[in-house]
Amino acid sequence: MTRCLDEATLQSYFDGELSAQLMERASSHLAGCVTCAAAAREIAEETALLTSALEAEFEVSVPTQAVRERIDAAVLGVRVANVERTEKAGFFAAFANVFSFNSQRNLGYASLVVVLAFGAILGIVKYRQAKVTPQTTNHTDNIQAAAPSDLNKSKTVEVADNRNQSVVPDRRPVVPQQVKYSPRPATSKVVPVKNDTLRLLPGERSYLQAIARLDTTINSNKKAMRPSLQVEYERNLAVVDRAIAATRNAAKSNPNDPDAADFMFAAYQSKVDLLNTIADARLSGGRSH
Amino acid sequence: MNGQARALIESMPNDIGTEAVAPLSFDEAFTLHHRAVFRTARAVVRDSALAEDVTQEVFLRLYRNLHATPGEDLLRAWLLRVTLNVARNTLRGQNRSMVRDNEYQKTWTENGSVAAEAPAEDYERRMAIEEARRALDKIKEPMRSCLLLKQQGLSYREIAISLSLKETNIGSLVARGRKEFARVYGKIGGRR
Q1: What H or E segment, with its residue span, contains residue A204?
Q2: Chain A residues with CB inside 8 Å of B30's CB?
Q3: CB B152 within 8 A of CB B40
Q4: Considering CB atoms only, which of A53, A63, A83 is closest to B135?
Q5: CA A210-A269-A279 angle, 5° bins
Q6: What pLDDT, in 10s, does the model give residues A8-37?
Q7: Nearest CA of chain B to the CA of A95: how many Å?
Q8: Contact B167/B157 with Cβ under 8 angstroms?
């Protein structure tokens, strides 16, 4: 005799939920087991009671037609809502499709990117040119405006160089065309000789021209000068130049003092005399050679 | 089929529930299972109007999830599981109203949906329903739901799916629920 069936197995047997093998085994056991057979009868009675108790509950007629109409209406509402949502989504989907990629669109987007890139580069170049052009114009204007001053400056430097060279024994003659001469009254401010801008004092020009001519004459025959005479000439010339510089500074410092101008002219005259002497000596010496 | 084409097809009139749903169409599902859904809902919410609301919501969910619902063999279990959830949620927001249910039954009867019953029979029937409900109220879950579903003809497997239980436990739960119901129902004065 097999073991008695438990409550769950007996209920499953009663509900037909056991496998065929278990159903057969339970059935054979119930045929020979009074206890399990009594339990099976109890299950049948209680199940009948349950069914009858819930019969009223489950026998209530189901309003099939009313429920179906409500559900159809609700489903239709869902469809309308879906269509409206689809239409709204369609508007945005039109934009969304723009961002969906396929092979043809990839090519189009690539072309668009290239065009935009070139456009951006050209735009940057144009913008930079627009910024640079005014500066170039100004620069040109500056150059044009600066040109005269530069020219004046170059002339001034050249004159100063000449002045410096005049101190050197091997001097070149002062070129009158390069000298910027502006006759001014004695009361005008006189720029020092060593300044960049050479401002000649009244009466100074004639002396300078005379000195230049004598210098040219002397230098033309310089090789013929005797060394002893050459040394003495250089020494005297240095003394005279220092005297000219001193008296000229005095004349510029005291423009209203006629004595100062006279001393300067006297110094110039001394140089002219010296140069004349040298020139005469060289001419006589040259003849003597 | 893209979304627009599907929406266009769905927007066509007079085809409600006729879409082919493998393996059961919406219309077939309603025809086969709406009674079980309504009765289960009514057993929980104890109100016919609320049971209609629950039934409508259950089949709307079926309609929205036609592509995700199980096959024919398990569709009833899926529907009753949804039914129990919707009915319990509905019950949380509603007070039981026998008055409303009575008014519903009265209106429903006047509309000719149900054959007119004799007043005495109607009273006996409502008393029987009340006694059974009072007995069921004494039974704890999930045994109560097991009994409700079992009495509607669901298999153990379907019950297990509907209540998210193990199938091997259903026999024991049904047995315990049945015994408890018989005990409580006898005390209440049922027909034992």
Answers
A1: helix A204-220
A2: 68, 71
A3: yes
A4: A53
A5: 55
A6: 999 999 999 999 999 999 999 988 899 999
A7: 15
A8: yes
